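quick one, 401 residues, struct below
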Amino acid sequence: MKKNTAEISIQSRSAMIENITTAINGLQDAGHFGEGFNTPFLKFEAEALKSKKEWINSNDISSIFFESMHIQKSEIAQELGVDAYEVDLYSEPYRLDPIRISSVANSVIKTLGEIPANYFVNFPLPELIIDEEIAITDEISIIPPSKSGGNIFVEHQPAYVRIKARGYFTNHRERPSMREVSSKLKQFIQVAINKEILIRGNNKNPHLYSKSYQEMLSAKIYAEDDPQKVLHLVPLTGGMSNYLNSLRPRSIFNFTQNLIDNFIQTMSMMNSDLSEENSHAIKSALEWSFDAAADDDETMRFLKTCIGLEAILGDASEQGGITERIADRCAYLLRNTTTQRKNTRNVMRDLYQLRSKLVHGVVTKFSHSDERHAEMGQIYLNSVISAELRSLENWWKANRS
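---
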C-alpha cells in the first residue's frame, strides 16, 4: 500500500479551521443555512479537496463535518439531561461555545488528516464455499466466512472476495473509494468467468447459505489493522446483488490447481504497472461487461455491451465512423477467412444499427430479432475480451522471458 502523501500543511490547516469556525458562527447567528454558513464552508471544502480529492468528494466532507457537529449535540444533550432531538444548536442554552467550535474544527481536521487510510472491502459470493483463503494478487483474495465475521456454528456460509483498498469509506456506494474498489471487483469477476473459475447458473444449490436471487447483498468495510470489526456495510445495487448471487464455481466440488494458477497469473499480469498501458482498455471492457450482465433492463444491457466493445476495440484519438472501424477490428481479431470476416462485419453493422435506433428513440423495446442481436453482442464482447487477454498474456510472457 502507498504511503500517505496527502499531508495537510500548516497553512492549509489554519485556513480550514478559520473557515469552519466562521461557518459555524454564521450558522448559529442566522439560525439557518444561509450566506453566513455557505461562503466559508465552501472555502473550507475547496481547501480540503486540494490534498484529498483523489479519495473524497464534497459529500464526504459534508458528512465528516456534520458527524462532528452531531457528536457535540449528543454531548450537550447528555450534559443537560435532555434528548438529543431537543438540542437546537442555534439557540441558548445549546449554542456551541468557542471551545466546542474549536473541538468540531479539530475533529474534522483530524479525520481529514487520516485520509487516505487502509481498508479491506469484502464482497460476498453466496454460491461459493471455501475453507481456506486463496490469494489471487497482493490486493485480492478469496476468503472463507471465518475471515469475514462468519458464525462458526452455521454451516455452508458463503465466501467473500476481499480487496485491499486505500482512501475513505462510509456506507454510501457513490463515493470515490467505493467506486474504485467496485471497479476492481468487476474486473476480477469477469476474468474469473473468462477463465471458467466462475460460471453464471440458474439452479440454486440447496446447501448454500443464500436464500434467493433477490437477496440484497452488502459489502463489508474493515480497517486493515482490524479485519474482524465491520466499520461500514455498503448496500449493493439490486442488479449487482442478483449477479453475484447467480455466480457459482465451475465445479461444485473444487477448483483445479491449473485453473487457479492460470487465473492468478492473468490477474497479476493485469494489475502490474508494466502492463498498465496495454491492459487499460481490457479493464474498461471488463467493467462494462460486468455492468451489462448485472443490468435487468435489456436495452440498457445492450447499450453497455456496445460501450464495452468500443472500449476495447475503439481508439479515442481516431475520428470518423465508429461502426466500420469496430466491425473491421472485430472481424480481423476473431476470424481467419474472408467469408468469416465478412459475416462478422455484417453482424457488427446490425448491432450498431440497433444501437443507433435505441439512442435516437426509434426503438424502445426489443423484437425477437433485436434480442438475438443483443445476445450476439454479448457473445462478441466476451470473445474479444478473451482474444485480447490471450494477446496480453503472450506479450507478457515474451517481455518477462
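Residues 203-213 have pLDDT under 50 and may be disordered.
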